[in-house]
Write a structure and sequence with these properties.
InterPro entries: Glyco_trans_1, Glycosyltransferase_grp1. It comes from Candidatus Woesebacteria bacterium RIFOXYB1_FULL_47_31. GO terms for molecular function: glycosyltransferase activity. The chain has 362 residues and is of the alpha/beta class. It folds into two domains: 3-182 and 343-361, Rossmann fold (3-Layer(aba) Sandwich); 185-341, Rossmann fold. The chain is built from 13 helices and 13 strands. The strands form two sheets. Strands 3-2-1-4-5-6-7 form a seven-stranded parallel beta sheet. A six-stranded parallel beta sheet has the order 10-9-8-11-12-13, sandwiched between helices. Strand 8, helix 6 (212-222) and strand 9 (226-229) form a beta-alpha-beta unit. Helix 1 (15-26) packs across helix 13, helix 6 (212-222) crosses helix 11 (315-325) and helix 9 packs across helix 12 (332-339). The chain is globular, with a radius of gyration of 21 Å.
């Protein structure tokens, strides 16, 4: 079965990119199509036999300034020709699902989330009453219309979590099945609980929807040590807000990150994630998760056994959850067993079964 992979843009490393590398292990000969490709920022993509960017690649600086692509992105994905393929797999949180395939070519969409800035996160990206919201309104209206239409094109829609499945139903009016993304849990073996430190950990890009600001304000109030791993547009603002008990470590190597997971008291997870790989990585290392009760955390965290939930994104709610956490004894074995439900080998096995089912219907 000749297979192609499609992804929104190749210019960073994160959870979606881990999905693509796992898919490469299943389909090692598959080419990877994308809107724009930055070899400098995405060295991981060198594993693919061929990376094929769209015509947008020819526009200066677009490989790294993709936020300016806007209304051109739909045309970029519609311009690809997949007539020589039996199966096309789009991995997307934006426009890659909008590819056009001919009869005889199956299209499986692995949906990370319906386009966030158009739907569930629209008010975060375009605050109510702002000039940006007014100026962008025509483009948003066009993109919403196209996005809904594009979401009907895949033959099969697969969601990464129950929360994403609900969004697909709400915004696109489509049914989907859930297949959890891969987590390389073998890299995060737990250590003796006696070695754990007293600090709490956050592992996030420092952008608004990750709600790092909420954690900083809560720990300013609690006075407990908080280590923040990651970089992003809000870094300067967050550092100015934080008291001395909150430390920012920037970006770490995978080995350094694993060490922090193994030694922290718990991972702080105040955002609503589509899935949330960090929560699984922490549990794989024996660290409980203090999580906002929404999104992917509902799939990955077991309240009272592998973590503690809080129900409102407020400083008092998070602060109280941290206090409640201190009253519970967590078993590293149970944490590890829960994380193993999301292993990469499990993902590959389930994905192969899904493709076999599609192949049987071709």
């Amino acid at each position: 079965m000749k297979t192609a992979l499609v992804y929104d843009r190749i210019n960073k490393w994160g959870g979606a990119e881990r999905v693509l590398t796992a898919l490469h292990e299943i389909f090692p000969e598959a080419s990877l199509f994308t809107a724009v490709y930055s070899p400098k920022k995405a060295k991981w993509a060198e594993i693919f036999p061929l990376v094929i960017p769209s015509f947008l690649q020819k526009i200066p600086l677009m490989q790294e300034k993709h936020e300016f692509l806007g209304t051109l992105t739909p045309l970029a994905f519609e311009s690809f020709d997949f007539s020589g393929y039996d199966l096309v797999i789009s991995v997307t949180s934006e426009a890659a699902k909008g590819i056009i395939t001919r009869p005889g070519t199956a299209h499986l969409c692995y949906c990370l989330t319906p386009t966030r800035y158009l739907w569930s996160g629209h008010d975060l990206y375009f605050p109510k009453g702002s000039l940006l919201r007014s100026i962008s309104a025509p483009a948003v209206a066009y993109l919403r219309q196209w996005d809904k239409m594009a979401a009907q094109r895949p033959d099969v829609m697969v969601a990464i979590s129950r929360a994403v499945r609900a969004r697909i139903s709400k915004y696109y009016g489509r049914d989907s099945q859930v297949l959890f993304p891969p987590v390389e849990i073998e890299k995060f073996a737990p250590i003796s609980p006696s070695i754990r430190g007293n600090f709490f950990l956050m592992v996030n890009r420092l952008v608004p929807y990750k709600r790092v600001d909420l954690a900083v304000r809560a720990f300013n109030q609690l006075g407990l040590p908080l280590v923040v791993v990651g970089k992003g547009s809000q870094e300067r603002k967050l550092k100015a807000m934080a008291k001395d008990n909150v430390k920012f470590k920037g970006e770490l190597t995978e080995r350094e990150l694993a060490d922090y997971y193994r030694k922290c008291a718990a991972l702080i997870f105040p955002q609503e994630e589509d899935f949330g790989i960090a929560a699984v990585e922490a549990q794989a290392a024996g660290a409980p998760v203090i999580a906002f009760k929404a999104g992917g955390a509902l799939d990955t965290v077991v309240d009272g056994q592998t973590g503690v939930f809080f129900e409102k994104q407020t400083v008092p709610a998070l602060a109280q959850a941290v206090k409640n956490f201190g009253k519970i004894s967590f078993d590293a074995k149970i944490l590890r067993e829960n994380a193993e439900r999301f292993s990469k080998e499990r993902f590959k096995k389930e994905f192969r079964a899904l493709v076999a089912e599609i192949d049987g219907k071709l």
